Amino acid sequence: MTPEVPGPVTVERVLSLSDVAGRAWDDVADPQDLFQSRAWLRALERTGEAPVMYLIARRPGHCRVLGALPLYDSLPSRGDYLYWPELHFQDLLRAASPAGGRLGLLAGSRAGFGTRLVLDPTLTGPARAMVLRALRDAAGAVAAERGLPYTFFLFLDAAAWRDLAPVTGDGGRHRLAGVAQTELELPGTCFADYLATLPRNTRTSVRRETGRFAEVCAAETVPLREAVPAIAPMIGNVRARHGMAYSVDAVTGRLSAYASALGDTAALAVLCKVRGRVVGAGVLCRWHDRLYVTDFGRVDDEGPDPFVYFNAAIYEPIRHAYAMGLSKVVTGAGAELGKARRGSAVLPLVHVAWPATGEPGDDRAGAAPAESRRKHWRDLRAAHPRYFHPVWDELL
């Protein structure tokens, strides 16, 4: 039985998960977070995209892991600038004016989905805070050694922020992300049950979108590994149109990591074909009872669009999830209202900055950007209240 307060906590720096027993990590990694699972992190290690280190919290002399933090050196030059902390805290960047334009390392995950915590689930109350405080101080020490003033979490889910808030301290900063996560709890046992839960007008739209798609396109689900060369440029096209200049190499690396971590039965691509030609694709990753829709791509030829996006990124994944007996489709961040209209709940994501020194900063720094984000989401929720999960009440 784990005691309520674990006593002294030590934090070890580990360079590879091969130095942590598999069961020790799996016992504390949240089963709902693919992107801090041992399978995913080991895949990143194989592809050269691994964290620079892992911070492992234990009781002195004990092997059981109480909590852990993967730490990444996330640079925009790597081609995945969405996970560049400085992008989300430009006010701190202007205030600090650090050498080289760097503010800090990234903790947790670099995935853009709701980040959870690697924390012993049997710990409660003061024990959780003690472990997280030890990890915070250890992360600050690593950042300070590198001449960086902060450690960051990006895209935290509300439960993780609830745990971190008491240990963020006066010098810390937090704000809502500019995007929110969308998740669909699958009702019933089949696509018809999903349709039946939608408002009548939406149900009519979905039937029109799936019907038009079926007239023009054929959908084929294949192992992601086989599809990477064909779909990586399409995904790059879509991201570029949304202002995210990802290289094809960066997209290829990420898709290859999915395939390596999950294998051919759980890392899949939905290929949308017109007369045998692939015109669009969605990437599906199954983890426990959840199906992640991680990417969407389409050809950039200005051809007719028979609702390829909605089918590749929403409807075909829903059909696949039902077929696999899963309970939830994680439809990701961005395009929140379109996904919510089609049944997904909108969930908040939070960015956090921990100061390396633990010293209080100017309380006014970051206040305006944080309030601007809150106002954006308050206004959007007021206009569309039924789309937003009740957990927003804690943050607005």
What is the CATH H-level superfamily of the largest domain? Gcn5-related N-acetyltransferase (GNAT)
In CATH terms, what is the fold-level topology of the largest domain?
Aminopeptidase
Mean pLDDT: 90
Number of domains: 2
InterPro entries: Acyl_CoA_acyltransferase, FemAB-like
Keywords: Acyltransferase, Transferase
Protein name: Putative N-acyltransferase
GO molecular function: acyltransferase activity
Question: How would you describe this structure to a colleague?
Answer:
This is Putative N-acyltransferase. One of its GO terms (molecular function) is acyltransferase activity. The chain has 396 residues and is α+β, with helices and mostly antiparallel strands. It folds into two domains: 10-180 and 348-394, Gcn5-related N-acetyltransferase (GNAT) (Aminopeptidase); 182-346, Aminopeptidase (3-Layer(aba) Sandwich), CATH 3.40.630. The chain is built from 13 helices and 15 strands. It has helices at 22-26, 38-47, 85-88, 90-96, 125-145, 158-168, 191-196, 200-216, 224-241, 248-262, 308-324, 336-341, 367-383; strands at residues 10-14, 53-58, 67-72, 104-107, 118-119, 150-156, 173-176, 181-185, 218-223, 267-274, 277-287, 290-298, 328-333, 345-347, 350-355. Strands 1, 2, 3, 4, 5, 6, 7 and 15 form an eight-stranded mixed beta sheet that branches. A seven-stranded mixed beta sheet has the order 9-10-11-12-13-8-14. Strand 12, helix 11 and strand 13 form a beta-alpha-beta unit. Helix 5 packs across helix 6 and helix 9 runs antiparallel to helix 10. The mean pLDDT is 90.
